[in-house]
């Protein structure tokens, strides 16, 4: 990803930030559990001619600070709000993938000034994810080795990922702080944020992968229709959970259209 890369310190942690492109509204990207700014690189390639694009590594991931005590979703949301304030954004759209989508919901509940809307890509819903403990243990183990990460590709992706994307996912997964990996499985997945839903006034568009078996279309529509009435949906065909890697062009096209609508 070509762009200005810097380290910005917020809430006592150094965040690795990529700032690329020009144009309004600014697009702020929040990655998934196991991801980094690199997750968004191909999508931003399609967007940076018309939008300022800001992506950052959550604490504990990528090149951001590690060895911390708190990797909870509220901490990630506070970091996001602090970063936006420090950069001075006044006209922006939050784009969150999977875990990043749940963080975006928490941020939006604070009703920050300048937030135009949310684009949630295969997001974790506001409801708890009832995953059996043995399944969580297996998922956690997968993020500790190349072979383990490879074993989950059939679940995360529909069809084959490019080799370069497989390498990216492996690299980012292995680079995560073990405590950050644990936090989502032990607390983030179960975190019920439905009580925050009435506080969210920003419009929401959910982008769904037609073959996503992690966050399925039916489950997402049920949750978001219940807790965020008026949510709109975009379905991208022939994709699984890793939409930013499998369909960056289609995703960017959807983001362009939605962001333009938010700006009217």
From TrEMBL:
Cellular component annotations (GO), alphabetically ordered: membrane
Record keyword Hydrolase present: yes
Sequence ranges assigned to domain AB hydrolase-1 in this UniProt record: 25-246
Top-level division of the source organism's lineage: Bacteria
Keywords: Hydrolase
Any one GO MF annotation of this record: hydrolase activity
Pfam family, one: Abhydrolase_1
Residues spanning the signal sequence: none
Annotated protein name in UniProt: Alpha/beta hydrolase
Organism the protein comes from: Telmatospirillum siberiense
């Amino acid at each position: 990803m070509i762009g200005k890369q810097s380290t910005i310190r917020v809430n006592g942690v150094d965040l690795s930030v990529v700032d690329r492109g020009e144009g309004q509204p600014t697009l702020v990207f929040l990655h998934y559990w196991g991801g980094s700014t690199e997750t968004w690189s191909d999508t931003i390639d399609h967007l940076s001619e018309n939008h300022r694009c800001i992506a950052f590594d959550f604490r504990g991931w990528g090149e951001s600070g590690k060895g911390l005590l708190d990797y909870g979703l509220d901490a990630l949301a506070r970091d996001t709000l602090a970063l936006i304030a420090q950069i001075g954004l006044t006209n922006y759209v939050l784009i969150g993938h999977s875990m990043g989508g749940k963080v975006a919901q928490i941020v939006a509940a604070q009703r920050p000034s300048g937030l135009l809307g949310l684009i949630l890509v295969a997001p974790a819903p506001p409801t708890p994810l009832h995953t059996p403990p043995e399944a969580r243990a297996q998922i956690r183990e997968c993020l500790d080795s190349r072979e383990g990460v490879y074993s989950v590709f059939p679940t995360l992706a529909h069809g084959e990922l490019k080799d370069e994307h497989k390498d990216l996912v492996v690299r980012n997964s292995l680079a995560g702080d073990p405590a950050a990996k644990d936090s989502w499985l032990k607390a983030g997945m179960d975190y019920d944020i439905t009580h925050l839903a009435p506080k969210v006034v920003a419009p929401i568009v959910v982008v769904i992968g037609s073959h996503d078996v992690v966050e399925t279309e039916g489950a997402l529509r049920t949750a978001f229709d219940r807790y965020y009435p008026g949510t709109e949906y975009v379905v991208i065909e022939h994709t699984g959970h890793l939409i930013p890697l499998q369909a960056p062009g289609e995703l960017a096209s959807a983001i362009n259209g939605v962001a333009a609508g938010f700006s009217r």
